[in-house]
Design a protein that fits this description.
CATH class of the domain at 130-245 and 252-279: Mainly Alpha
Number of helices: 17
Distance between the termini: 31 Å
Number of strands: 14
Low-confidence stretches: none
Helix content: 40-55%
Structural class: alpha/beta
Oligomer: single chain
Length: about 400
């Protein structure tokens, strides 16, 4: 197994907090990361029925057994444990005693915020980034193969065929996690919802339209979207909103974290089929946005990622806001650069300079071609070079 970028931040948080909570989607590598980085700590998983029974029936005895500290996996299986750990670390607040992992859901997030506020460092582990996938010595020479295969480590570590892995993943997610989180009785409707949402990755989130398409109520759609977010299937990206004397769109976009899952849900069966698919542009946009998000999250940074869209039709796919700087990123699936690809970036730079002159603007175009260049103050980045860009700082 490869060394993950997030390991450095995990070890740093263990120096400051008595508890560190590591969340992320199932199969993103949380257990492996903790066992590699914290091999000196006992490891225990609440997934095992006997361990869960011990923790739930004799919680004080369970904590006493691991009084010197431990990695406790799948902590969402017994959220009341967090309240007992709060008392324990208040009495003995040595840094790095407990590391908790969980495939985040609403109950876990609420329990952490209520019981462990100020006592736990928080870190998310998403599927592998482009830079991490290179460590598997896998072939990343084709963008469509890369998007089709997705970024979950097991696919590369165990050489599991892509369709087989996603079939098992979706089955486990829908049949187990969704039932636990929402107690959804009509699983077939949720599968249809998941497929429809995959087809809308990179698009504005319209609850009413989704409900109309599926015959679901507005409230049901909102609740199910929250499930996608809390289980790290998709994330909501908010629009840029400042007083610019122009009318800005206030509706967020929804992006999937993993394009392999998108392809599976849409029935895309090969990289060649993806290359000619009508949604390839939206899927490429979600892939690039997710790569930038993973870079920032795994370093322990807040995303600070929004998009620009006004009611005149002007739109830029991504803005990264940090202090007095903004990096604007346009994302195009074409393989040949032309001026229309970065026209909106040039417009945005001039527009922002007039209205927000104190901001430093950095303009970047990510595309599916292979050459790097600079045009009209726009840095043009090939898809294969995204991991060589410092997305952690808008100044570079």
């Amino acid at each position: 197994m490869i060394k993950r970028v997030a390991e450095a931040k995990l070890l740093e948080l263990c120096k400051y907090f008595p508890i560190v909570t590591l969340t992320g989607p199932r199969q993103s590598g949380k257990t492996t990361l903790c066992r590699m980085a914290l091999e000196h700590k006992p490891y225990v998983s609440l997934e095992a029925p006997d361990v869960l029974e011990f923790a739930s029936e004799d919680t004080r005895g369970f904590i006493k057994k691991y009084k010197s500290g431990a990695v406790i996996d799948e902590v969402q299986r017994f959220p009341p444990l967090l309240s007992y750990l709060q008392v324990e670390v208040d009495e003995q607040p040595e840094p790095g005693r407990f590391v908790l992992t969980g495939s985040s859901n609403l109950n876990l997030l609420q329990s952490v915020s209520q019981s462990l506020a100020g006592r736990t460092g928080l870190l998310e582990l998403l599927p592998c980034s482009q830079a991490e996938l290179r460590l598997f010595k896998t072939d990343l020479s084709d963008i469509f193969s890369t998007m089709y295969s997705g970024c979950y480590p097991a696919i590369y570590d165990r050489n599991i065929p892509v369709p087989d892995w996603y079939s098992a993943y979706v089955g486990t997610y829908v049949e187990r996690d969704v039932r636990q989180i929402l107690n959804v009785s009509d699983i077939s409707s949720f599968r249809a919802f998941l497929k429809l949402m995959a087809g809308r990755t990179g698009q504005l989130l319209n609850f009413s339209q989704i409900g109309s398409d599926l015959g679901l109520s507005h409230n049901t759609v909102k609740a199910w979207v929250s499930v996608l977010e809390s289980s790290y299937i998709a994330f909501r990206m908010q629009p840029f909103f400042r007083n610019l004397n122009t009318r800005l769109i206030k509706t967020p976009k929804m992006h999937f974290y993993d394009t392999g899952l998108v392809c599976f849900m849409l029935g895309i069966e090969s990289p060649d089929q993806l290359a000619t698919h009508p949604l390839r542009g939206a899927i490429f946009e979600s892939w690039a946005v997710s790569e930038i998000l993973k870079t920032r999250i795994h370093l322990g940074l807040r995303p600070h990622m929004v998009f620009y869209r006004d009611q005149k039709g002007n739109e830029v796919d991504l803005l990264i806001e940090t202090g007095s700087s903004i990096t604007a990123v346009e994302i195009k699936s074409g393989q040949t650069v032309n001026k229309d690809m970065y026209r909106k970036l040039v417009w945005l730079e001039e527009f922002m300079r007039k209205r927000l002159p104190h901001l430093s603007m950095n303009m970047k175009l990510v595309y599916s071609g292979n050459s790097s260049q600079t045009r009209n103050n726009v840095e043009i980045i090939p898809w294969s070079g995204m991991d060589r860009v410092n997305w952690a700082s808008t100044g570079d």
